[in-house]
Amino acid sequence: MFPVVIIGMGPGNPELLTLAAKNALEEADVILFDCMPDDTLLKTFQFKGEIIAIDKKIDPTAMVDTMEKHYRAGKKVCRLKPGDALMFNGGGKEVRALKAKGIDFRMIPGITASCAAANIFAVPITEMDESDVSVNFVYHDNETNHSLLKDLAGILKYGSTIHIYFANTDCIGQIVEIITSVGVTLDMPVVVASRISAKDETSVKTTLGKVEATLRSLDMKRPMLFIVGKYVEILSKKQIIPFLMTSEH
C-alpha cells in the first residue's frame, strides 16, 4: 500500500506549491480537500487523479474515512490542506486518526500565510540583534483567546512581532484594545494583508491607533492577516514570484 500524503498547499498561488507537493499530486489516484482559497491550483495543473471535496461540517469523520477507504484499496491518496498542514487547520487530528487506524502516511510542508505575506510584501518580521521572536496567533472571540493575546502582547514592547489571523474586521477594535491594555502604544506599526498570493491580494501599512478606521475605509477581502510589531513595514508591494507569470504588480 502507498502512504497517504498530507500536503500543505501554501496560501493558494500555484507557484508557491513546493516541488515535492506537485510531484505527489501528479502521481495521485485520489486528491482530497475540504477547503482551499480558490480552485486556481487545481485548474492550473489539472492533475489526473480523481478530485473529491469533503464537507467535514456535515460529517467530521468523512475525511479520514475517505482516506482510509482509498488507502486500503491500494490507491495513491493525497490530502490537500491550506498553508501548512499542521498549522491552524486540524492536520494534527487527522494524523492521529490515521496513526490509530494503522494507516501509513507522510507529510509535505507548505508555506504559511504569514511567511508568504512577509515575503510578498517585503515585511520584516524579525531584525537581527534587535528582534528574535515572531508569534502566530488565531483570533477567536472568547475570553480564553483574549487572555492569551493579552499575555502575548507584552512581547511587542521588546521589538517582537505577532501575526494575527482573523475572519472579519469587526474584531479589530477588540484586538487593538487587548494589545494596548498592556502598555503597547497606539503608534505601533501594523500591516494588514488580504487574499495573500491571490491575484487580488492587497496590503496596507498603518498603526494600532488608526487600523480600525483604515480598514473601515477599504474593501479588503477575507481572509486577512494582521501583522503588528516595531519593525513592521511594507518595503515593496511587488510579488517576488509573479502570479502564474502573467500578473502585474
UniProtKB/TrEMBL annotation:
Gene Ontology MF terms in the entry: uroporphyrin-III C-methyltransferase activity
Record keyword Methyltransferase present: yes
Gene3D superfamilies registered for this protein in UniProt: Cobalt-precorrin-4 Transmethylase, Domain 1, Methyltransferase, Cobalt-precorrin-4 Transmethylase, Domain 2
Alphabetized UniProt keyword annotations: Methyltransferase, Porphyrin biosynthesis, S-adenosyl-L-methionine, Transferase
Gene Ontology BP, a term: methylation
Keyword Transferase: yes
Top-level division of the source organism's lineage: Bacteria
Residues making up the signal peptide according to the UniProt record: none
Domain Tetrapyrrole methylase, chain residue ranges per copy: 4-211
The name this protein goes by in its record: Uroporphyrin-III C-methyltransferase/precorrin-2 dehydrogenase/sirohydrochlorin ferrochelatase/uroporphyrin-III C-methyltransferase/precorrin-4/cobalt-precorrin-4 C11-methyltransferase
Taxonomic source organism: Capnocytophaga leadbetteri
Taxonomic lineage of the native organism: Bacteria, Pseudomonadati, Bacteroidota, Flavobacteriia, Flavobacteriales
